[in-house]
Fold:
Amino acid sequence: MVRAICFDLDGTLGGYAGDFHGFLALLRHELMLQACDMNRFAEYMREELGRDGALTLATVLTRVLSRLDQRPGTDLENLAEAAIGAYVEEVRPADGAERMLARLHAARVPMALVSNGAIDMQRAALKKLGFARYFRCVLISGDRDVAVRKPGPRIFALACTGLEAAPHEIVMVGDSVQADIRGALDHGMAAVFVGSDAEVQGLAVPAVGGIDPLDLLLQERFGL
Ligand SMILES: [Mg+2]
Structure:
């Protein structure tokens, strides 16, 4: 019987509502890389943001500059901190997320946040959303103590430990078929996809179009 929940953050409970390409353009400008092709810069940024291991935005910027054979012209730690400030300005909760989390928390359902990304960006986003108090454990791939991204089994194993629950007692909720849904199913968890039915065809996983139908499904199908 399912008695605990893992939530993805971005695209599930909330996330960056701005133009991510615009955010990358701002970084490119701040790094004084106007001479560098924007598509190439964006491609390297996305690749470096998507790596396993301990990750901060400054680490990502250092690696991107190195791949571009550029030296940092400024203090990357300060630049990264300012960029994260601009990033969280555009972080928004999904409609109904706060209400659902408060309900589940009041019902004493153990919950974990399981999120891929740079530790400082994800922590800042979570702080902006104010959701941390609802989670028994927060697992971010860029945290040095996690250091692996979904769908890697280690992050799901850490969630089981944090929730003090076996995989079959946990449902993972997320908007990535590969990272969230396949990752959870491979680990023996149940899963709920936030998105359209068509994307999870053949996976025998329910799909919901938003938080309100998700909350209803958690109550009706899982008794949570
Ligand atoms: Mg997501």
Observations:
- Strands lie at 4-7, 14-16, 91-93, 111-115, 137-140, 170-174, 190-194, 207-208.
- Residues 23 and 29 are 10 Å apart (CA to CA).
